[in-house]
Design brief:
single chain; alpha+beta; Phosphorylase Kinase, domain 1; Aminoglycoside 3'-phosphotransferase, Chain: A, domain 2; two-stranded antiparallel sheet
């Protein structure tokens, strides 16, 4: 990145040449994008800092995650950012676009993620997560009400092909690439279970989903409000998907009491917006989506290690698989898959004793929520 180009653009944005500019490269994650914080050290700068996103020559035209839909006419980040901003949702302002150099100049939402707040001693985790749940309900309400639907996010969806691809991503990277073989019978059983899961999920109510509405993409602002990042892969998907991303987060483990409270908060807030949800049905849907997403996540973390040479996500695989175990304890119809995964992964990842989990786990009770709602 050419520092003189960046300084000139900062001068144009702020209306004055910057004598002192500090550029710090931010920690790399699994994304192909690179981020820098540009601090303007002179007096009375507005803004005093901004984020420079380096997309490269292609301007991020291809999606970070696998999608199934038409090719975008504009970089998805730009198009979806503008759409969400038009809906009044809290996404970073865009100060400038440098297409020649593949750079975006964006509002700086700071360094305080929901994850960092959740693990800070003395912070009321439940209260801050209720704000995130409220933001999600607002996100869903606002995008449902909009009738234009001309944004690329509405032209792609979590269809059966994509849902199945993600499940097979787990099979390929979590099992096959780690030399954990399946017999022909086991392979057929897994295929049948995955096909059943995909059909159950695809029949759910479809809404616009962020696709990665989790603690590292939600930024807590000084006044306590929450800003949204990493929305470029948004698409139509099952209603519980973003709530699963938030509450079954591989980076932050909520207690059973917090989980049940926050699912209840989501149902109550949705009802106030006119979306009445049956608690039994929604809990089952939540568990089904948890099963699909967390299987995908476990495989994805191995992929990121082996293909992108980034092993930092491997430590989150046990948590992801504990959610898989929780989901399988919470729903009916996937006992064979449960036993198969226990046989292949249980001892290796300290998944837990299957029979004990079945006896004390989270099978639905007559009230619709989980009996104990155990995470482990």
């Amino acid at each position: 990145m050419d520092i003189e180009v960046v300084k000139a653009e900062a001068a144009r944005i702020t209306g004055k040449m910057q004598q002192r500019v500090e550029i710090v490269r931010l920690p790399k994650d699994a994304s192909a994008r690179t981020y820098y914080r540009l601090s303007l050290l002179g007096d009375n700068n507005d803004p005093s800092s901004m984020i420079v996103m380096e997309l490269g020559p292609g301007m991020g035209m291809s999606a970070e995650e696998v999608t199934d839909g038409p090719d975008p006419a504009e970089p998805p980040f730009l198009e979806i950012r503008q759409y969400l901003e038009d809906q009044g949702l809290p996404v970073p302002r865009l100060y400038a676009t440098d297409r020649k150099n593949g750079l975006l100049y964006l509002e700086d939402f700071g360094d305080v993620t929901l994850e960092s707040m959740a693990i800070t001693r003395g912070v009321d985790t439940l209260a801050i997560y209720k704000k995130a749940v409220s933001l999600l309900v607002d996100f869903q309400k606002t995008t449902r009400m909009d009738q234009r639907r001309n944004c690329i996010a509405f032209k792609r969806e979590f269809n059966p092909k994509l849902l199945l691809w993600e499940l097979n991503h787990f099979r390929e990277w979590m099992l096959e690439k780690r030399n954990i073989p399946l017999t022909p019978g086991e392979s057929g059983l897994m295929e049948e279970s995955f096909a059943s899961l995909v059909q159950k999920i695809y029949r759910m109510d479809q809404v616009l989903v962020h696709r990665d509405f989790q603690s590292r993409n939600l930024m807590v602002q000084p006044g306590g409000s929450i800003g949204i990042l990493d929305f470029q892969d948004a698409l139509l998907g099952p209603l519980p998907y973003d709530l699963v991303a938030l509450l079954r987060d591989s980076y932050v483990e909520l207690t059973a009491v917090e989980l049940e409270n926050l699912i209840g908060t989501y149902i109550d807030l949705s009802a106030r917006e006119g979306n009445l949800l049956d608690k039994d049905v929604f809990f089952e849907q939540f568990a089904l989506v948890t099963l699909q997403r967390k299987l995908k996540d476990a495989g994805r973390f191995v992929f990121i290690d082996k293909v992108k040479n980034n092993p930092s996500f491997l430590k989150h695989i046990p948590t992801s698989l504990s959610y898989v175990n929780w989901a399988l304890n919470s729903i009916e119809g996937f006992d064979d898959l449960h036993y198969l995964l226990e046989e292949k992964l249980g001892k290796d990842l300290k998944w837990g004793d299957l029979e004990k989990n079945r006896a004390t786990g989270a099978k639905k009770d007559a009230g619709g929520m989980a009996e104990g709602a155990k995470d482990r």
